[in-house]
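User: Structure tokens for this complex, please. No commentary.
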Amino acid sequence: MTASSDITAPGPRPGGIAARALGAKPIPDYVARLNPEQRLAVETTDGPVLVLAGAGTGKTRVLTTRIAHLLATGKAHPSQILAVTFTNKAAREMRHRIGDLIGPSVEGMNWLGTFHSIGVKILRRHAELVGLKSSFTILDTDDQIRLMKQVIQAEGIDEKRWPAKQLAALIDGWKNRGLVPKDVPPGDGGSFANGKAVKLYIAYQERLKVLNACDFGDLLLENLRLFREHPDVLKEYHQRFHYMLVDEYQDTNVAQYLWLRLLAQGRRNICCVGDDDQSIYGWRGAEVDNILRFEKDFPGAVVIRLERNYRSTSHILGAASHLIAHNQGRLGKTLFTEANDPDSVKVQVSSSWDSEEEARAIGEKIEDLQRQGHRLNDMAILVRASFQMRSFEDRFITLGLNYRVIGGPRFYERQEIRDALAYFRVVAQPADDLAFERIVNTPRRGIGDTSIKLLYDYGRSRGIPITQAAEELVQTEEVKAKTRTALRDLMASFERWRGKLGTIKHTELAEIILDESGYTEMWQQDRSADAPGRLENLKELIRSMDEFESMEGFLEHIALVMDKDNAENQDAVSIMTLHSAKGLEFETVFLPGWEEGLFPHQRALDESGRAGLEEERRLAYVGITRAKKRASIWFASNRRIHGLWQSNVPSRFLDELPEKHVDVVEQTSNYGGYNVGGVGNYGASRFDRADPFQNTYSTPGWQRAQANRAAGAKPAAKSNTRLIEGELIAKSTGSKSDYAIGERVFHQKFGYGHIEDIEGNKLTVAFEKAGTKKVVDSFVSKN
DNA sequence: TAACCCATCTTTTTT
DNA sequence: AGATGGGTTA
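Assistant:
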């Protein structure tokens, strides 16, 4: 057992270190503004500290104040603090807020950034130690997949049967877990390419080295290698970093964790801030376990819980806390608020007939609020999956309601931007094969697949990049005259542009490249609707280059910072996924689509069982806790998924909300909701006859939850996943179906069909006309 | 080489 | 439904 202190509601203990420290000098006002727990988190500067910061408890404030405190007390210089975040946005915001506290000296914080940007910085300094040149290129996902495709084909494997995307997922997974090829456990690649996955991983890494390139995963992996194989280098960083801080610690994957641990071995002054209840990125390698094992890895760690919530009303907090209490794998925090909120409203739960009505009803609510003087900027619609956004967009367009979609394809991922960047890359980094391949025939120059293959063969046989192969081949007779001319012209152009690199302004050069290559013209000729937008984006790209010193500086930046501020100042409702809502807050939050299968998402359940369910529940928790004043949850009885209508069962998460903090809104519209008997054209169903939410509160699941809650007990722990899944099905279905496999049934909408499978009250029916669908038994009748 | 047709897939997203 | 990608055809 390690000596760790778990401090739940501390104040400076009389005579304690903090109290003495405080007594010694006047309390700086930035510290005085903190509550006791926050203050402890700020003032416990030395040794390992884990801050468990619930939603809305001032996490960022603690981090920024802690840094300010380290600087103000002279414990460290700005350049001696390592502060890591996950996103550029978070890093920017942190820099900004520290700047507010300490002024311009924040500029000296050279080591505040994302895991990746700091990883690159370190790697560039020591690149040759891991077999790279310091000018290495960083490949994005797209390049990565194209390269893997080549590797798969080079191995003579059928790329159709074993898609590069799948291999990429596999390799990414390994890299997330910090595994180089030789560390991959045998059999871990599954049946991919008949067990050749690791071989492909090796081949891929070799190709990367030849190209002098790294993918995102390598940035950390190569750091690990560097630190392990060169203790002197690691030691240098131990000396450099006096204090380390980590934001969103619950999102770290194993590689990031190992990286942190290596660095923290030096001075052991590491402070991680996170919330296990907000871990929603398990599917991309985040390990909540990193939080759970912190005390083991750092004996003597101080654990501080921030549970005082400053964001939400007591009803919202009550609803969210009760929901998340259904999770077993958590450290457990109880959020509370001291806000005196007499006008606090309960969380509303409403239903609708289908997604269109859902959008219509939410649109009305938004307009109501707007009429009452609320700003659209203070409202958000948070969806589980992005396809849900469409019905809202459609509706808001007809209403003329301003909205903004957050997320979606990012600026630097657009085709025209990537093409333009590829041109710049070939100019700046002549051996960038992937970039060259991308644009060699864009616009069309008559250099087709055959010619490119020829370049590859030539290049591979001689071990030279294809750009160089192109240079050499145009001197020979091996290429058809027409192609040869085209290629020679292109190579000459690149040579010409390269010559201008550094002699004229890089933005000007960029324009010249796009014009002379015919790329701009290609879009000008394009008659499709989005061509003008693409030209606009290209202009925007060049405008944004202006902020950089040089072409190389710009390319370095965009490889890592694939986001762009779209600071729209217009008043608009935000529409985004629950994932991208993490860290944000709004007065009013709408949470549509709380239906089994969508939320929790069926795939999360299928692929990850209980862990998947718990992650979905955390997502629900994140959703509710985004709301400051009003949260309203919606459920649609019918939804069109992949083009076909599906009837839905309300999400089990609805069952898990506490009645005390929830208002079930009776559907009174005449569009045909739940309890409008017989209006819907789906014919009789149990949904038509009774208010499901009245039923909801008497389901076994709900009662069990209430009982557990009352007893103060966590739901009984189950170690057997199968059993738990069985329980979940029972929970979601309620009663057993009295249909039998093979039985012929009739559905109001889909017609006749035969039952293929039964799962609780969900039937898989092969309809004669409509195909095979999953339906709830109450929607069909015996024939 | 470009147009066209068919099969396939469809959660969440950062770097 | 709708986008995407690959293979086939003119």
